[in-house]
Amino acid sequence: MTLQHVVVGVDGSLVSVRALDQAAEEAARRGIALRVVYAVPDRDEAGPVLASAASRVRERHPTLPVETRAEEGGIVRALVRESTDAVLTVVGTRGLGGLAGWASGAVSSRLAAQAHGPLLVVRGERPHDVCREVLLGLESDISADAALYAIKEAERRGTRLRVLHSWTHRHPSPELSSSVPATSPGHEPHPRTESESRTVRTAPAASLVEATRDAAVVVIGSHRPGSRHGGHLGPVAHALLHHSHCPVVVVPTG
What is the pLDDT of residues 26-68, one digit of tens each? Predict the structure, then answer.
């Protein structure tokens, strides 16, 4: 059993191939294994899709350990279960064009509310660009874990971190200002990592979605399943999952 791994859901579609490619990059960046999961009514149907996925990863990342797994049932239940011991769970979703199948926005929203660890939703129409900035959307005081994830992500990528505080009251919550430490615990800042903080007082969802045009990835927090709030996505997280121009990482907190 793989103890340190990234999990990705596939189904043979172009959408899931994009998710597979980015999941492999995430695993390679972290120096850990990749687990490829296909949820089907009958496990015998999964062989060709999983074999093709594993072959694609090995061509692009010859030294990356790859494990394949067929799961019976729906993709949401399978990936929620897999997220329990994964460093990161990855799923694809279609862009602003039509939504269909398990790659729809509704499925990614359900996963984002139920996953037990960070979830990367691969979306956006432009090619993946690791050189762009990491964007952190601070929606409320639930965002401390999301802030730490964003800091580490900027360090992994060697790029700058941009922070947007989203609030609609006259004064920002003091918890927001204190939820973004200078660096992750036990780590020195990456030499290329900078941070920029900007407060958005009106239409926070629209402002953050617009900011994703220049980002490699955007990070947002959500209430963790089993917390006193239950699995819960705020309006900004919902907007990003459906309209972001770049991949979205949802980090459960609380």
Answer: 999 999 999 999 998 888 888 999 999 999 999 999 999 999 9
Return d(Cα 96, Cα 47) in angstroms, integer.
31
22, 27, 247, 32: which is closest to 134 by C-alpha? 247
Can you give the pTM of this predicted structure? 0.84
248 contact partners, CB below 8 Å, separation of at least 6:
120, 121, 123, 217, 218, 219, 220, 240, 241
The tokens of 177 are what? 């200002």
Closest CA to 26 of 200, 153, 125, 199: 153
How far is CA 212 from its chain centroid? 14
Which residue from 35, 27, 10 is spatially nearest to 91, judged by alpha carbons? 10
Q: How far apart are CA 244 and CA 96, in angstroms?
A: 9
